[in-house]
Description:
Layout: E1 7-10, H1 17-23, E2 28-31, H2 36-60
Parallel strand pairs: 1-2
Amino acid sequence: MERPYTIAMIAHALAGGREQRLATDMADDVSKPVQPEALIAVLKKCQPVLLSNQVSVMAAE
């Protein structure tokens, strides 16, 4: 089973926090206040993962 692509939405970005989140299996993060460009960039990074999972499921059927 593949691990889900998890994106953390955080209220306060502290120094070193990103490394800690990535070490706990978060694929990426977005800090508040959310900048639309930052959110779009993170979602574009996960899009290939989501599409490959969809193709795998369709092939199994």
